[in-house]
Amino acid sequence: MRLLTRARLKASRAPRAKRAADFDRAVAEFFMRIALEEAAKGQGRTSPNPPVGAVLVKGGRIIARGYHKKAGTAHGEIVALEAAGPRARGADLYTTLEPCDHYGRTPPCSLAIIEAGVRRVISASSDPNPKVSGKGIARLRKAGVEVLTGVLQEEADRINGPFFKVIQKGLPYVTLKAAVTLDGKLATATGDSRWVTGEPARAWVHRLRDKVDVILVGANTVRRDNPKLTTRLAGGGGKDAVRVVVDSRLSLKPSYTLFTQRSSAKTVLATLEDPKGRKARRFTELGVEVWQVREKRGRVDIKSLLARIGHQGFNHVLVEGGAQLYGSFLRERLADELALFLAPKLVGSPGLSWSGDLGVKVMSEALSLKNITFEQLGADLLLQARL
User: Fold this and answer.
1) For a tag site, which of 126, 286, 308, 349 has the least CB within 10 Å?
2) How far apart are CA 246 and CA 52, in angstroms?
């Protein structure tokens, strides 16, 4: 493969390879990054499907682009093909995920690509779904369409991580988000936690909420903070995630904001109690769903709850507190990713530690983090890592 030595690329045009058969890695990555930007527009909106972006390129220029907006609507490749119309013939299609090859709520993308006369398909991630895996590519190649794979696969795999986990393990992808002081405290000894972090960090959290399907909190977090758990983006807009509260004995009062305010998404209580009992009726009368979940050591079994969330068609869960819930996810190795805000503050030993008891007796048993990145947001530091 010939590599481009100087890539001064504009937003809608990149250098053409000298021969049609040439595959220029730098050019391919340029257009794939635009396809990834398209895919990101659908994050948190496509479950149980993956977010997919596509770009059609002809003569070094983008002629159409598209992304999957929500389940049941056209996939990203189809949106781009429909936007291009007859111009798609002889074009190159960049897609962030292997084109599907089965009939679901929509027809196969592979057939539409062939019928449109696309010359070449460049894809990023492979689809682990047994209904798709390798079949779309095989059909395209059999029809004479050139296929190139693995372009910016790592970046695409990150966007598709929640979908991949549900397909492979039957459980949604879990991000733990916590805001703590430098000595690891969520709140003071009195329970006060407003605010651990500054406005830039809180704005980042709202952008994250906009990209997930479910926000999960424990009953103590509701008591302490009385949160809304809605998405409030600068300039308005945004999507509310489904809000799930773990309350094993339905001990919360129905008067908390979470249960009384209006939201575009539903609110769920996960409990051990009878969903048709007197305690539950106080919430169901407000439109709150009550899920009875299997018990584990006298509390809601977190893994069973995750399985039910995945069965409901949700791919990505954001856990926002509290310490007991964080500890459960960490002890049971059910979390995939950590987003930890470190504020330049000290509270002292009486404060509330964020991770709970992890049962670690010796340092060799400590949970290890990988793929660690740091970002400064105002005075706060955001640590992101895989678990």
Assistant:
1) 349
2) 32
